[in-house]
Prior knowledge:
This protein is mainly beta. The protein has one helix at residues 99-107; strands at 11-14, 19-22, 29-30, 33-34, 36-40, 47-54, 57-62, 67-74, 77-84.
Amino acid sequence: MQCPFCKQKLKVWPSEWHTNYGCDNIECVHEDMPRYQATYNNYPTNLISRCFMMDNLYIRIDYQNNHTVISKLDSCFLFDSVQLPRALDVPLKDPHLALKKIRMLMTFS
């Protein structure tokens, strides 16, 4: 698995209930938060969530509960969150392709 932003191999952070995959490249970490993180329960069969940090937005896509939360990011704080009632489709090959659509969702909510 590789980071959709820098294409570096993702670091694995196992826990008791699930496994997180995230980028620890210095270019992809902001205030100790990775720009991309995926959480699996039994990789690769059960994707729980994905988190993207793009520009000043933090996007958390929850596949188990079928919703997406988009928040404005200031330093390491999240503000003005908007919840969408479905899991947003963000292409992993180029996540920035979804950025225009995400900004429009934030403008009209």
